[in-house]
Amino acid sequence: MVSTVFFLLQQAATEMPVRGPIMGYIPIALLFAIALAIPVGALTVGRFVRRTVMTPEKMMSYECGVDPVSDARERISVRYYVIAMLFLIFDVETIFLFPWAVIFDQLALFGLIEAFIFIGILVVGYYYAWRKGALDWA
User: Fold this and answer.
1) Which CATH architecture has domain 75-131?
2) pLDDT tens digits, residue range 58-80?
3) Quick check: 97 and 118 in contact, CB under 8 A?
4) Reported pTM
5) What are 69-116's pLDDT values in tens digits?
6) Domain boundaries, given as residue ranges, for the chain
7) Burial call 57-86: b when 16+ CB within 10 Å, e when fewer
8) C-alpha 27 chain-centroid distance
9) Helical pair 104-131 and 78-95, crossing angle rounded to 10 deg
């Protein structure tokens, strides 16, 4: 459907004379309107179609398929936060590999050596965290 809209807009753009710079924004505005109308329409239709029967079971909090057994403000081990931070650090660091992949042909051997040094530093950091016991759950 979206490709049909783009095709029709392209046909109309090639057949119409240029009337000013604002005319180039009409396809963007139309795409924005369609992108806004689809979820709003789906949510509106869903609101009228669904049943709204509130029961105590339905209003109870839900934790990963298991009924809650304690208070939500219970103390959690700091290891969960350490694992989350390590994941974020290594995940963000791997994002830096994408620019090298995009211009790999231009960097040649220098870029390859630089990427291996970067990955080596990541492996050393991962090994350090592993040896310190930061990745153990128990």
Assistant:
1) Up-down Bundle (1.20)
2) 777 766 666 667 776 777 777 78
3) yes
4) 0.42
5) 777 677 777 778 888 888 888 888 878 888 888 887 888 888 888 888
6) 2-58, 75-131
7) eeeeeeeeeeeeeeeeeeeeeeeeeebeeb
8) 26
9) 170
